[in-house]
Amino acid sequence: MPGEIPQGLVEAFNQQRVALFVGAGASVASGMPTWNQLIGELADELGIKPEGGAAVGFSPRQLLLIPQYFENSQGRRALTDKIRQIIPRNASQASSIPGLLANLSCHLYYTTNFDVLLETALAAASRDVDLVSTESDAHDYSGASKCLVRKIHGTRETADSLIITRSDFAQFETLHPVLTEQLQIDLTTTTFLFVGYGLGDPDFNSVYDRSFYRLSPMNRRHYMTVLGCTEHERRDLLNRGLELIDLTAWSDTPGVDRLTNFLQDLREATSDAFHISRFFSNLDRDKRIPIVVPSLVNEIEPYVFYPAMDLQVAHALEEALALIGVGAVVQPDKKAVMRADEFLAQDVILVGSPRGNELTKYVFSCAAQDLARGEASPITSQFFPGEVRVLVDHAVGISVEAADPACSGEGEDHHEYALIARYRNPWAEGRHLFVLAGLWGLGTAVIGDFIKDTPNFRRLPWDGNETVAVLDIQFHHYDPDNPVYTWDVIPRKSEL
């Protein structure tokens, strides 16, 4: 049975009140050394053997003393040079863990790691990042960034910043009062998730002893992933506000990276950006995707908010795409349909049904011709006009119809429907067409509300290249100035 993520942690992510604290275990799969391996490199030069023998490894006492002995013997510069030699700047192995961490819904990261994997992954995810790795950085930080990484034990990029010897740890609070104070403040105001640490990890213990322990017991619950623990350890840490998440529940297969499995589940449960990027898959971050909207008011739908609703959908799309680092440009359908070959040779978003958007009409008419000839088409939906409009999707077995909401009577249950779909682009291999269209104007307006509330993207069904969702919009009496409605995603049915 797969592991279960604590509900308190999920809620904290959803409230944007989480800080990630990243340890060396999150870097090992990328080819970075464990703490024991790093200390082993230093010990080899000093001729020091593990107290417990090679099978047991270095004792906690040795993990702090050996770097101190190395500095005493060869000097600080030789120690920092050796650390930078042992810890490469670039990963030697592919691992999804840094990318998973960077794509969680989190804006504050702490780490004791010297490597630069985390900040590199955040940059690759188009996150706006500030880095604090020294006491001077902490003094100067303005608090203006959208994402902050605090490397409280320094970074290989700034050799003098490294906290590694016994004397470094002993003097940390004295020499780093701002870093220490900020960590203590964050521990009382933010939910922490520790990943990549073991309960015997000297990095974790140093943070726990100097900051976490003294604040305990705390009202705020924090969390830590571990690979196995005793009931005594669990209860002791829980009494001090730290709940352990045992990663052994995320796989019983040897060789499987349980931390990766856990982070994937956590991303699935908490990251709006992940689900947005999942729908808008494979978009180029260095190009702006066109959002094609109707150019003119559709005389058949003379609602007071039309066509402003199409622009509202477009603006909501721009904000959602910005969360995944993708730009967009709004284009009128009259221009787009005259240059259809150019527009359809790329990823493109179509807002509005074939009744209002000329490019949408062109796309669906081509698909209808293919279907009429018995040819397969990745565009599986069809719109049928009339006083009662019909939307059919053959791939997921959905057929719905709706009359004009503006003509609905009072005291009755009425329905309107909207399509949110991603199709393979038949005009451009490897590209997609994204269609967001209501049967009537109300449906398109509701799509705008759907997109603004970004957690809604988690409710979209996922099925390879094609993703088709139909919203069932329910209302009693339709007031175009103040529409009141509820909606839900229609469950998929058997093929028509």
Topology at a glance:
Layout: H1 7-14, E1 18-22, H2 35-46, H3 60-74, H4 76-86, H5 97-102, E2 108-111, H6 117-124, E3 129-132, H7 135-140, E4 147-151, H8 166-170, H9 172-175, H10 177-189, E5 191-195, H11 202-215, E6 222-226, H12 231-239, E7 242-246, H13 258-270, H14 272-279, E8 288-293, H15 308-322, E9 327-332, H16 333-338, H17 340-343, E10 348-351, H18 358-372, E11 381-384, E12 388-393, E13 398-403, E14 414-424, E15 432-438, H19 441-452, E16 467-475, E17 486-489
Parallel strand pairs: 1-2, 1-5, 2-4, 3-4, 5-6, 6-7, 8-9, 8-10, 10-15
Antiparallel strand pairs: 11-12, 12-13, 14-15, 14-16, 16-17
Distance between the termini: 36 Å
Radius of gyration: 28 Å
**CATH architecture label name of the largest domain:** 3-Layer(aba) Sandwich
Average pLDDT for all residues: 86
CATH class of the largest domain: Alpha Beta
How would you describe what is shown here?
With 496 residues, the protein is of the alpha/beta class. 37% of the residues lie in helices and 19% in strands. It folds into two domains: 7-32 and 87-270, Rossmann fold; 283-489, Chitobiase, domain 2, CATH 3.30.379. It contains 19 helices and 17 strands. The chain has a seven-stranded parallel β-sheet with strand order 3-4-2-1-5-6-7, sandwiched between helices. Strands 9-8-10-15-14-16-17 form a seven-stranded mixed β-sheet. Helix 11 links the parallel strand 5 (191-195) and strand 6. Helix 2 (35-46) crosses helix 3 and helix 15 (308-322) packs parallel to helix 19. The protein is elongated, with a radius of gyration of 28 Å. 41% of the residues are buried. Residues 298-306 have low confidence and may be disordered.
